[in-house]
Amino acid sequence: MADLSFVRSEMLPERAPPATEVGIVKWLRTNLFSTWPNALLTIAAFYVIYLVLAGVLPWLFGGVWTTSSLSECREVLQGDVGGCFSVLTERWNQLIYGFKYPTELYWRPNLALVLLAFAAAPVLFFDLPRKLLLFTAIYPFIAYWLVWGGPIGVPVTAFVGILGAYLVFERFSASNFALGALGGVAAAFVLWFIGGYLVDMMASENPLLTPVASRDLGGFMLNLMLGVTCVSLSIPLGIALALGRQSSMPLIKGVCVIFIEFIRGVPLITLLFVASVMLAYFFPPDATVDLFLRVVIMITLFSSAYIAEVIRGGLAALPKGQYEAADSLGLDYPQAMRFIILPQALKISIPGIVNVAVGLFKDTTLVSVISMFDLVGMIRGPILASQEWNGVYWELLGFAALLFFVVCYGISQYSQWLERRLRTDHR
Amino acid sequence: MSSITFDHHADRSKMAVSDEVAIEIRNMNKWYGSFHVLRDIDLTVYQGERIVIAGPSGSGKSTLIRCINRLEEHQEGQIIVDGTELTSDLKNVDKVRSEVGMVFQHFNLFPHLTILENCTLAPIWVRKEPKKEAEERAMHFLEKVKIPEQAHKYPGMLSGGQQQRVAIARSLCMMPRIMLFDEPTSALDPEMIKEVLETMVELAEEGMTMLCVTHEMGFAKEVANRVIFMDAGQIVEQNEPEEFFNNPQSERTKLFLSQIL
Ligand SMILES: Nc1ncnc2c1ncn2[C@@H]1O[C@H](COP(=O)(O)OP(=O)(O)O)[C@@H](O)[C@H]1O
Ligand SMILES: [Mg+2]
Fold this sequence. Notes:
- The complex is a heterodimer.
- Chain A is mainly alpha-helical.
- Chain A has a domain at about 90-150 and about 210-420: MetI-like (MetI-like fold, Orthogonal Bundle).
- Chain A contains 17 helices and no strands.
- Chain A is flat.
- By secondary structure, chain B is an alpha/beta fold.
- Chain B has nine helices and ten strands.
- In chain B, the strands form two sheets. In chain B, strands 6-7-8-3-9-10 form a six-stranded mixed sheet, sandwiched between helices.
- In chain B, a hairpin with a 2-residue loop joins strand 4 (about 75-80) and strand 5 (about 85).
- In chain B, helix 3 (about 115-125) crosses helix 4, helix 4 crosses helix 5 and helix 5 (about 160-170) packs parallel to helix 6.
- Chain B starts with 20 loop residues before the first strand and ends with a helix.
- Adenosine-5'-diphosphate binds near residues 35 and 61 of chain B.
């Protein structure tokens, strides 16, 4: 038998890797030219990229930005390649605000957008001081007042009603959850009733902010408003539906299951038509429920059903031991949900929720079919139908795509950051 | 199986059993659907007792101790913990759970919270303690289980043995009078079993009432004052450890002991 024993007398020093294994050469070789077919594909891909850029870049950089109609554009270009981007500059206000929002009031939605950044920050970046959430709580009422104007009593009443409901709920829910919830709802209605009465009584001829009707909203502003409102409403509603679907009470469970399955089985566009023509039947005949509100309700219901299903997946992924540990420590159901179950289930659900949110935001363009003039509605209607700009498809639709892309890409980047930030295993 | 040896013998001086009843189970029966999992269980646990429950897999050991803090519901008979009977009245359930701590086989720590937050969550929200006080006590117990330096890490960064010791500290932070252990070491590598068992021995030395489902017979000999053997949903035999191991009476017990020792 050979001698199997071995003892190393001297440890080996570290050496640099061979030259073909470092730097750009190595990168090119492994990533672009590792094999012959791979190299051919690389060359073909570069050729396609070249073709696309060769077509788009001259169009982009040779574009015209200052004319006032398509025919003028053509004159300036004189057959050269170039986009007629003047439609964007000339119709900028219409694309962003719609064609009826009073020009002198543009500062109001602008201000609302700036404040939105402050209101959203503590929600999106939870390392910020929690006190900022107070502003988030009052923001919806400020934003409503800024965009729609009218007597300040309306948002104040709405706020006071919800504040009252919250206080009643806080006071009673600890001892009896149902009593707290019902009392809260009752308090809100009482306060709204009194408030509505007071607002009617004190309504002055010219309120501080000129009122603007919902049908005067339009452009990308309308898309943003619908998107932000519906996303922020449908996430809590989706959570409630997902929890309801898990409930041990058959009635609650049944209602949630039927709601979710029904909504998921119906195209959004049908719901929007229902909102525009039929929903009025469900409200008292003299109640004129605002079209914007009706659309918000429908889109919110629609996406909350999808979000509920996403969150249900997250809930199902949690081990049973998490519920048992929470129970054994004496946490009650709301506490277990709030501190243990939902934080983990929502974290798992982030990609799915973001998927729904991005889809929802793009679906807000569907309101153009029920004659609301959102960005796409403006392009298809007033702008393309006008004499000056009839036929400028690429520039307008490309611009719309760009706006939506920027927002959706932002959402997606945020969600990836959030997932990284929430990762707690093995950092 | 019971290869773990302890560095020093457990100090039984403070392990006094009082005649105050901690848990009283009378004629308790439980079914999963039509499967009769627990049959006519009668058991009285006195304050300060350290009971080890052994038995083959599927004999209903976990179900029994999970009934004691109502993670499972029993259908017949009575369970009275510290004078409170477990019924469908949620107030009683909450009261019992606040007095009974539980340690699980798979630790069940909350992975999205730091070790310290794991330990302070329930004291802050269930016992309504000020955060500072809860943190001080959590640090006290983390020191006791010898991992105060991990307080700001997340459970996923700790070894299994460390996680189980955190789980014990988390239960202790609720100041329970009774601790339930459901196979606390069976998911652990041998070298980690020892550190967890030593923590449990220390707890016993301080006079904690403990019910412990385990196959660590070394632990039973060292600490327990009573060993209960279960099979097919019934208590088949119970005795002091000495007698139980040296002089088992029932054939089933003999068979079981011959398999695991
Ligand atoms: N949730 C459940 N539903 C139905 N059967 C169960 C459930 N949990 C446990 N069982 C059954 O009850 C019996 C006792 O289980 P368990 O108490 O976990 O046993 P042990 O802990 O002694 O191994 C086993 O046969 C098991 O299959
Ligand atoms: Mg078990």
